């Protein structure tokens, strides 16, 4: 935004991109040479464009490819695979994702600050976890992280309740197979949790733990929807939501 | 400088989570559950180098090439979905987009670049999703971008990027789509116009209006020119 009204921001943006005619561009250039407001606005726009270009592309969740591959392989109607079908069960998890996002971003930064070292130094984090002084903000972030974990656990608990009712109609073999799968998912969560605890300031450890929770939720949701036929939820080793 | 100020002034590495995640996925405990470690999964796919060869291989029924195409475009499609429909619905939209992409590959004639065609299907999936939501009068799903941004003044790259993401999420969807395709994804106006089915001039004028609106929003959010320039 500029206090000078000679050229609106849109025109300055067009100038930055070289979208103006030669005549108009020359006029803008001549005006900016004598107008500090427009000079600042042009610098501002260039910085905005550079910052926007530098935005990260988030990594998709690990459940995405299995769900796509499953849908394509089975040629079933899309609606069957829609995440919308199990959205009610994942509400807690998704709500938790917001907190997780904050915690993943904030925790390494806060921990790094507490120790007076850059957040990206995992060795320093390992050494300094026993620091006596505790930043209240760090405390708050850790509490939110725990809350997010609890939200995932609640979703899982709810789905396990639903699955227990379904399982009553399954064959013993189907129940055994399901128990094996769930055991492996529980192992995955336990090992991810251990990893996250071992490297408490490393966002990747936390990220992995929540990915493991999400995987279990997706698996349970698929199992509840699809019944006990092994091929239905077990085809790729992981269910499609 | 208090702890909080110090925290915000720590400059995290560029894309801090992704590198660390890639390292750790090699020891993922969830292997064997259909969640192969990313690097391993991608290494196993011996994909043709060019897009045209990849499409040919998929048409011949090569499942590995199908997965390779997914890995080649997954982040672009998912990021687009996050920015058009929000993080909560992004997986559903990305799933829908890829299903449309794979089912539509037989009709892909190569008139446009594969990436442009994929972007078009992804944008269509995202906009259809928004329309369905609007028709069903469902409230917009909360976006975790909002939750990542505190009320603190912007300091440091990560916070600045989060503020920009939040402002982007509040732009009208037409402006948002154009600015994401052009400024974030780096497409040319000709490609944006192909994707959106509009004239190149329309793409340009929408982009410049979108930037002006974005700048106003950031200014209202306390993002100064100096913060942007130092970002």
Q: Would you mind describing this structure in some detail?
A:
The complex is a heterodimer of chains A (241) and B (231). By secondary structure, chain A is mostly helical. Chain A has two domains: 9-53, no CATH class; 64-234, no CATH class. In chain A, 74% of the residues lie in helices and 0% in strands. Chain B is 70% helix and 0% strand. In chain B, helix 10 (173-184) crosses helix 12 and helix 11 (189-196) packs across helix 12 (200-220). Classes of the chains: A mainly alpha (241), B mainly alpha (231). Chains A and B meet through helix 1, helix 3, helix 4, helix 6 and helix 9 of A and helix 1, helix 2, helix 5, helix 6 and helix 8 of B.
Give a summary of the structure in a few sentences.
Chain A is mostly helical. In chain A, 74% of the residues lie in helices and 0% in strands. Chain A is built from eleven helices and no strands.
Number of strands of chain B: 0
Total strand segments of chain A = 0
SS field, number of helical segments of chain B? 13
Helix/strand-derived category of chain A reads mainly alpha
Please summarize the sheet with the most strands of chain A: none
Strand content of chain A: under 5%
CATH fourth-tier homologous superfamily of the largest domain in chain B: RNA polymerase sigma factor, region 2, helix turn helix motif
Low-pLDDT ranges of chain B: 1-44, 141-155
Question: Low-confidence parts of chain A lasting 5 or more residues at pLDDT below 50?
Answer: 76-91, 112-132, 235-241
Label this structure with key terms.
heterodimer, A: 241 residues, mainly alpha, 11 helices, B: 231 residues, Rna Polymerase Sigma Factor, Chain: A, Arc Repressor Mutant, subunit A, 2 domains, 13 helices, 0% strand, elongated, disordered N terminus
Layout of helices and strands, plus pairs?
The complex is a heterodimer of chains A (241) and B (231).
Chain A (H helix, E strand, L loop, with lengths): L8 H9 L4 H13 L1 H18 L10 H11 L3 H4 L5 H29 L6 H7 L7 H32 L4 H27 L4 H24 L3 H5 L7
Helix pairs in contact in A: 1-3, 2-3, 6-8, 6-10, 8-10, 9-10
Chain B lengths: L2 H7 L6 H10 L12 H7 L6 H9 L3 H23 L1 H18 L9 H22 L8 H5 L8 H14 L2 H12 L4 H8 L3 H21 L4 H6 L1
């Amino acid at each position: 935004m500029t206090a000078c009204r000679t050229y609106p921001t849109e025109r300055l943006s067009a100038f930055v991109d070289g979208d103006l005619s030669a005549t108009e561009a020359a006029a803008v250039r001549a005006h900016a040479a004598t107008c500090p407001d427009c000079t600042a606005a042009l610098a501002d726009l260039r910085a905005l464009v550079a910052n926007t270009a530098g935005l990260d592309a988030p990594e998709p969740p690990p459940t995405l490819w299995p769900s796509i591959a499953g849908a394509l392989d089975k040629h079933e109607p899309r609606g069957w695979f829609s995440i919308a079908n199990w959205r009610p069960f994942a509400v807690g998890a998704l709500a938790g994702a917001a907190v997780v996002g904050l915690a993943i971003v904030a925790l390494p930064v806060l921990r790094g600050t507490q120790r007076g070292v850059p957040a990206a130094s995992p060795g320093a984090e390992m050494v300094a976890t026993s620091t006596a002084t505790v930043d209240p903000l760090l405390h708050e972030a850790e509490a939110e992280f725990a809350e997010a974990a609890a939200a995932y656990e609640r979703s899982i608990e709810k789905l396990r309740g639903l699955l227990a009712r379904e399982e009553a109609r399954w064959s013993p073999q189907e129940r055994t197979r399901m128990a094996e799968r769930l055991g492996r998912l529980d192992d995955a969560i336990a090992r991810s949790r251990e990893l996250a605890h071992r490297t408490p300031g490393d966002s990747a450890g936390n990220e992995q733990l929540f990915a493991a929770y999400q995987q279990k939720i997706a698996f349970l949701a698929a199992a509840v929807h699809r019944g006990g036929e092994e091929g239905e939820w077990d085809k790729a080793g992981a269910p499609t939501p | 400088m208090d702890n909080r100020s110090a925290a915000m002034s720590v400059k995290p590495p560029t894309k801090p989570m992704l590198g660390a995640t890639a390292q750790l996925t090699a020891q993922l405990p969830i292997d064997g559950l259909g969640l192969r470690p990313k690097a391993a999964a991608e290494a196993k796919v011996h994909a043709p180098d060019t897009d045209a060869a990849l499409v040919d291989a998929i048409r011949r029924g090569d499942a590995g090439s199908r997965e390779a195409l997914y890995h080649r475009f997954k982040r672009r499609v998912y990021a687009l979905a996050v920015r058009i429909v929000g993080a909560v619905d992004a997986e559903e939209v990305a799933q829908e987009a890829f299903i449309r992409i794979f089912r539509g590959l037989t009709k892909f004639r190569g008139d446009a670049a594969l990436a442009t065609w994929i972007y078009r299907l992804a944008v269509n999936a995202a906009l259809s999703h928004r329309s369905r939501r609007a028709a069903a009068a469902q409230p917009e799903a909360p976006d975790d971008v909002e939750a990542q941004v505190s009320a603190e003044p912007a300091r440091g790259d990560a916070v600045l990027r989060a503020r920009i993401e939040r402002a982007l999420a509040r732009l009208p969807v037409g402006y948002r789509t154009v600015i994401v395709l052009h400024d974030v994804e780096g497409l040319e106006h000709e490609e944006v116009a192909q994707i959106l089915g509009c004239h190149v001039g329309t793409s340009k004028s929408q982009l410049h209006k979108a930037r002006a609106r974005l700048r106003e929003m950031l200014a209202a959010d306390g993002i100064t020119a100096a913060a942007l320039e130092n970002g």
